[in-house]
Amino acid sequence: MLKVVDVCKRVEGHGEVRILLQNDEVLSVNLEFEIYRGFENFLIGKNLFDIPKIISRICGLCYASQTIASCKTIEDIYNIEVSEHNILLRRLLMSAELIKSHSMNFFFQTLPDLLTIFNLSQKTFSPYELIKYYPQLTTSLYDLIKVGNEINELFGGRSVHLISLVPGGVIYSPSRKSITLARKYFQKALVILEWIIEKFIQLFANQTPPKEFDLPKFISLALTNYGNYDRYSGSLRFKENNKNFIEFEKQNYSTYFGKEINLRGIDFYFENEKNVIVGPFSRFNIVENYGIDEIPTYLDYFNKSWKNNILFTNFIRLLEMYIESYQGLQILDNPSLNIREKLPSLNSIKNLDGIGVIEAPRGVLIHHYHLNKSNYVDRINLFIATEFNLSLINDMITKYAQELFERTGDINLVKKKIQMIIRAFDPCISCATH
Amino acid sequence: MKPRFILISLTSCTGCISTLMSLDIFPQFLERTRIIYFPFISDAKDIKECEIALVEGCVSEETQIILLRKVRRHAKKVFALGTCACFGGILSLSNSKIAEPLSNYIEVDGIIPGCPPPSKLFGNSVIRLVENKDITLSEKNMCANCPIWEKMEINFQINITKINPNPEEISLNEENSECFLKKGILCLGPITRDGCEHKCIKMGLPCEGCMGPVSKDFTSNVINFLSLIELSQELKDYTGIFYRFSKPKMKR
User: Fold this and answer.
1) For residues A271 and A281, what is the distance between their CA atoms, to the nearest angstrom?
2) DSSP of B110-145, one letter per residue?
3) Distance CA A158, CA B197 (A)
4) Is residue B147 within 8 angstroms of chain A, CB to CB?
5) Domain map of chain A by residue range?
6) C-beta of residue A137 within 8 angstroms of C-beta of residue A203
7) A64 to chain B: nearest residue by CA?
8) Which A positions 86-125 lie with beta carbon below 8 A of chain B?
């Protein structure tokens, strides 16, 4: 048996594809992570108020989501409701994080693949060549990264590992100046995104995406607020074949899935367990109402062949940035944002179990903490988006590698092509290697 | 000729690299340099000769030591990027994992500390590297330029009972006029390097020491600091206060 290993390029974090070959056949392909950091272990015994800022360090791209999921878990333990003012600030920070994360992924990681797949360029771009390739697009995407960065800095105190997020709320009373600045940033983002979305439609809507990026039968999982697009609050929903769905509250998650602490991967307690997907594609399948008229119109430009193809996620990411810029502007106009209030006191622990759920840019993120009788954290379980997707990714890359290798016998081509599938999922390896 | 750069991540959150990519000067950085190896955004497969290597993350796996030594052989200068690469970082909290700074394995030509490195310091440092100049860091501690600093009276013991203020006690910058230590809240400002623009302190939270130590001998700084304060029993029993971003006895 021969093992071929290749380090993944243009992904977040350090991952490898491991291809097992026997008698000129591909046996299996796995996306593997060499590193394991053990956050679930070393957070045991930590003071609850210490956990969010340590847990932020799981990921330098999903920092706001990780911290907010942690704060929500602690608020569940203290059984306190967070005020609207604080929820609005959290939503702003989440939108900024998503805009930064999606635009970095789109530009540096997946755009070169789209250009190759649809024969718009066959070049292997160096980062600088990519920047020179289409200067207007580069400038626009760079402006989007800046929008996310600056809004996180304005309301979070820092652009990564935000300071203002604490259990109970957000340490910040927005000044008129920061609200005005943030409004300008979101308005700018909307103009840029309209242009990029239209450009994307022009370039790709009339094309047919390659079949190897088609998803096998899958079940989507996402947070939704009665079918509305909402990454902060709501209930979890499984949806199969775009028809039937099961909706459940966070405290019942263990009926459907679970995981061994310190082991990678999530176990699903139903049939077709391999085919669960989370993230923008899943949100697209589950959300029924975006609250913005333009979104269904934009979606209609693409025919059926796209709607079951993972490359469509690139377009959904652009739409999500558009939606969140729009929602960001609505938040900035909400009078509750200007209320100056003290954070609530968190004095008495009400539950020994706490669960916090959020939709991170890459999908469902669940934190579950358990306290012992002395109120110390004795169990921490983290469900990370990329871990939900891992079985589906491995399934797709194995099938495609088998077919491609049989047809061409070219292992280098296999290595190159399967990485395009992996990148289309936008895995967050830092998060997955918590 | 454009200076050639390698940028790699070891065990990390990728926050330093994502901060670099969010800096206003990043497009300019790409224009003025030649990227030899940067897996996050580039397809280039091989580590080759370069002028400067920026390494993010701590060393936690055997294979990383081999990679790191290879980078050292190919780079004229190697810089540790971020607190994990400089001092070991947040994984120092782990008892089971090793989390070591680059300097435990290779000679390092300079550090850009912080979790993540503060944008201004980071941007200036990157420009200096592109121009083949050395990085300059403050030699002062956080208290030297602290916006709420009052002269610490060292002739009495300060009783420290907390490492975090309760949420309802957090006051914003303009209302924040008293040193955290005087309020009985542990602030690592006295033993932490200046350079982050006091972002946590301005938000009403004490310094947790992510910029790392001012001097090379962190442990003796901690001992001196401990002689000025009296920690409550609960804090004495709590691990990961002083060595949250570094383990003792690490080479620096």
Assistant:
1) 21
2) EEE-SSSPPHHHHHHHHHHHHTT-------SBGGGG
3) 11
4) no
5) 2-432
6) no
7) B15
8) 100, 104, 108-109, 112, 124-125
Q: pLDDT of A395-431, one tens digit each?
A: 999 999 999 999 999 999 999 999 999 999 998 888 8
| B204 shares contact with chain A (CB less than 8 Å) | yes
- pLDDT on residue B177: 74
Domain boundary pick from B130, B160, B182: B130
> What is the rounded distance in angstroms from the CA atom of residue B233 to the CA atom of residue B137?
36
Which stretch of DSSP H or E encloses residue B51?
Answer: strand B50-56
The answer to whether the pTM exceeds 0.90 is yes
How much is the average pLDDT of B47-75? 96
pLDDT of A433: 85
Pairing between β-strand A219-224 and β-strand A235-240 as defined by DSSP bridges: antiparallel
Of B11, B18, B168, the CB nearest to A61: B18
pLDDT tens, position by position, B198-246? 999 999 999 999 999 988 778 888 888 888 889 999 999 898 899 899 8
Q: Which of B106, B130, B154 is the last residue of a domain?
A: B130
Q: Look at B15 and A57 and tell me if their CB atoms are within 8 Å.
A: yes
A42–B42 CB contact, under 8 Å: no
Which residues of B fall within a CB distance of 8 Å from A160?
15, 18-19, 116
Domain A2-432 has CATH 1.10.645.10: yes
Share of chain B above pLDDT 70, in %: 94
